[in-house]
Amino acid sequence: MSVDDAPGIGEYQLGEFKAAGLTGTHVAGDEPAVDMAVRAARSAIERSAADTAAIDAHIHGSVYYQVPEGAYAPGYILRELGAGNIPSFDVHQGCNGLLGALEVGIGQLTGAARRDRVLLTTASNFTTPLFNRWNDFGTSSIYSDGAAAAVISSAAGFAQVRSLNSGTLHEIEKWHRGEESLLPPRGEAEKHFNMGERSQHFVDNVMGFAQLFEAFFKFDLGVINESLNDAGVTAEEISKVITINVDTRMVEQALMRPLGIPMDRLCAEYGNKVGHSGGADIFITLEHLARTGELRPGDNVLMTSQGPGWICSSAVLTVTGEPSWSDAR
To answer: Which end of the chain is more exposed for a tag (fewer CB within 10 A), N or C?
Structure first.
């Protein structure tokens, strides 16, 4: 859905979206998030030249509503896939979902578990009267329904994870919590999920906007620099930068300029048409680049995402070959 067709927004808000580089989003309607995760997982497994039986662990990144309270999203996904009775983990890191899942998955591959192939999934569906994808987060992002999946292996792939770092700036966790009760529901009607109101309460009562942005920009850059150092690459050697799909001007100010990376290396144009699909953004863009032949062997790709809490993760990949499923082959 193009921003030009967005319901309930005026000319000013439309202009702000376009100034931010945000041109559209995707709406899934009645397709559950976990069913989209299953579809993405089937594609990822097929492309990995393995079969479902070869997957020996599963990490899911939950964003917003997945399954009824008390049910387990990874169990649903594995049952639908017909997978074995393998270990599964649900990583509740919001929009940091797939990089968080990747970090846990790397532990499964390299740690005591010594898994061979780990499936990563995430999905979200924001189609509900309790959520307004166009208005509830200001004009810095437009929430999108979608999913992504990947198979990671200790053996081979089209890219190698050179480094991955993460951290939690817990001093600002209330930024995404606001004044919401920590107690379970006590019979009251379901509330509209308005993150914008929570954020505004934090800015008005706890930490001013300028101080808040300085705090998390500095924190995020620290995590990103750790990943560059661990990978043994400089910012100049980064060929592509992939972030979550938000206001391009904010990414330029907070990331590209401080690192000295030219804006033409930011892979934002495709993602800005996709919308901000929870934890799936980065892998959707990575898949697009690999499928369309925009990645070349030797390219170093910097990926970074954030989530409530305040979480930031950052990874550096080096492309080792062209995937068999690339349209450019």
So the answer is: C
Contact call for residues 106 and 161 (beta carbons, < 8 A): yes
Say how many C-beta atoms besides its own lie within 10 A of residue 46's C-beta. Answer: 13
Assess whether pLDDT exceeds 90 at residue 289.
yes
Quote the pLDDT of residue 196.
Answer: 75
What does CATH list as the number for 161-319?
A: 3.40.47.10
Span 27-63, pLDDT tens digits: 999 999 999 999 999 999 999 988 999 999 999 999 8
Task: Report the C-alpha gap between 66 and 73 in whole angstroms.
Answer: 6
Backbone dihedral angles phi then psi of residue 141, each to the nearest 5 degrees: -160, 160
Q: What secondary structure, in 3-state letters, does 88-142 show?
A: EEEECCHHHHHHHHHHHHHHHHHCCCCCCEEEEEEEECCCCCCCCCCCEEEECCC
| Alpha carbons 292 and 302: distance in angstroms, whole number | 18
Torsions phi, psi for 306 (to 5 deg):
-135, 160
d(CA 84, CA 75): 11
Predicted local distance difference test score (pLDDT) of residue 94: 92
Residue that the structure tokens 């030797």 belong to? 298
Q: Are 93 and 310 in contact (CB under 8 A)?
A: no
Name the 3-class secondary structure at 198.
Answer: helix
Gap between the Cα atoms of 81 and 190, Å rounded:
32
For the chain, give every domain's residue range: 3-156, 161-319
Per CATH, 3-156 and 161-319 having the same topology is answered yes
Distances (CA, A) of 203 to 138, 178, 225, 251, 293: 14, 10, 27, 20, 43
**N-to-C CA span, the chain:** 30
Fold that domain 3-156 belongs to in CATH: Peroxisomal Thiolase; Chain A, domain 1 (3.40.47)
**Whether the predicted pLDDT of 101 surpasses 80:** yes
